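Anyone? Bumping this.
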Amino acid sequence: MTERRLAWAERAGSAVLEATGWSPDELAELAPLDAAALARRFSVVPAEVLRSSPAAVTPMAGAFRLDGPALVFQPRFPFADGTDYAFLSWPDGLPGFIARAARELAATTAVAGIRPSTAELPLNALRVYVAFSAPMSEGASAHVRLLDAAGAQLEDAFVPMEPELWSPDRSRLTLLLDPGRIKRGLVPHEEAGYPLEAGGAVRLVVDAAARDSAGAPLAAPAERGYAVGPPERRRLDPRSWKLSGPRPGSREPLRLRADRPLDHALALRCIAVVDALGRPVAGRAELAEGDRDWSLAPAEPWGAEAYRLVVAPELEDLAGNSVTRVFDRDLGLPGDDPLPAEPVVLPLPPG
Amino acid sequence: MSTVVTERYGLKVGTPALTSAGALAFGPAGILFVADYAAATVFAIDVADDAVPSHAPVDVADVDARIGSLLGVGRDQVKIRGLAVHPESRAVYLSVTRGHGDAAVPVIVRLAGGEPSEVALEDVPFDSVTIDDAPADDDERQDGWQSSAPEAGTEERVYNGVTLHIARVPLRHSTITDLAWIDGTLLVAGASNEEFVSTLRCIPFPFGDAVRSTGLEIFHVSHGKWETHSPIRSFIPFDSDSSVLASYTCTPVVHFPLAELAPGARATGRTVAELGSMNQPLDMISYRSGGAEYLLVSNSRHPLLRIPAESIAGQEALMEPDDGLPGVPREELPHQGVSLMANLGPDRVLFLQREDEGWALRSHDAASL
């Protein structure tokens, strides 16, 4: 018997496995076999499965065909980089092995921002966003930790979410602080208290081991520290915000200062400026560091007309209190009854 | 591509373009509902499984390694996300992500006699529905850009005599956490990556040409005092499909009469149990044994819990917390590492269980639990 050789080849842009080194007799025997018959004689499996759980070996989905002197295996799913494969032929079942090279992965993705960007988190903070400079792989939440002042990890501070909560382009991860422990009156809070401790300090740490969508680790870890302040349990009140008016003829950003830090993602899409006809003003909205100062840089110069600020009722603060609703509502407090889910419309002062 | 409308449920022959595959549920006549959680879309696929029914138990060690072997990767590249049993053939269907990041591929795997095979999704009868107010992939508002109106995605409203073209704020259902087929309606629970809300969608099936899946707001009351508005993790039909039991992130179990779950409504459920802290419910099923109905809840931290149905019907909405865990009586079952669950015919339940380095599928006689 001639020695069997395994090699990678490219066919129609995808990798195939070629087995060569067949004797003329073997080739003559294989030539009349169709794909189904070849699949009874040969199989390809991940070597790891063969080595660690041989009873679980299932032939890899794909098709064999004879192409000249080579038996070609075209996999249904692409061969994975950095994976060893075994080629099995029956009846002897002896494996031959071949490795797919691991790709060199440059660590180029970084943490682009951690929100909230406040110095202080309310005790009942609800939500944290980690923005990355490029799309990520799922599983990143395992690499985000909350540490206390002594550097000890706060266990179970975040709700395990399956699937994880990503932005559609998978570049921003949302983490929820355990709401069971935020809700007053629910048992978990009674038992375990808040994830955070009033008067304390915490650090949110993103480990470099989080993988980007190419599988590379982050270029560097990232972190942000917070003091822990008192809980926030009031509805947001846009009527108390400080508003600057647009200056006609200028493109100066319109600015507002909210009554407290706002949820970053919601602030960017729940606050808008409309013109005298009620049409939204196009431009770029930003929520500055500190999460209280919102601005809109208009695409076109401001006119002399009367503009209005429109705040959607879904806007929330850092503790999940919205314009209409207190996050954890005490049914015994009529003042906390939800308001109608209407936008708040405020006239803007002259610039 | 030509499309053919089939007789069944308005499905059209084609290739469903799944971007992800999460929760699974079987609907009428073996139609498989697949939650494409990344695209906030539900696919209905006729898997045409007319295999001779198997009544054998299911006992498959290393099911993740088996699926990895089929898909050409090690078990660390296999993530099992959904589990359902075909009502007729009793074949096991699993939704799987193969690989990570850019290389991730959703696959539906059918398991019969312990052998996995890929469910082919080329030229199959299917339909899909996208959850109404999910954001477009190219929603520029993500980076703070606000466009002028009127245009798509805005609505005209009159407020204090002034007409406003208000951008409709999309609820960002970037995930679908569970699906259930109840009494002719598909119920879909989602979680948003921004608003912390609970919206349940009732979607009629067949989907039809102009599906408007209206959500309903779901609240639950604990201790007779606190009203909560949090995402549903998992839910099941209960009490002969007359009601729904839902489990939440902070682990209450809540009872809703099905009749209250009308589109556009605001439903307040009755919290019947608190399953404890530092815990996430993973899945729920109900089963019958000895003439009684039981609920099983698998958990991230806590053991598998069993609750008798009759105690739920009689449970008052939870009032002040007492010592320990309030609510209906529950007992801990000894099965370790249970995550996803399904009914395997009327007399067996099926668990996806963590064992050593991997996952196993184990069926159990209902009478033995």
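Late reply, but here is one note on the structure posted above: The CA atoms of residues 40 and 80 of chain A lie 24 Å apart.
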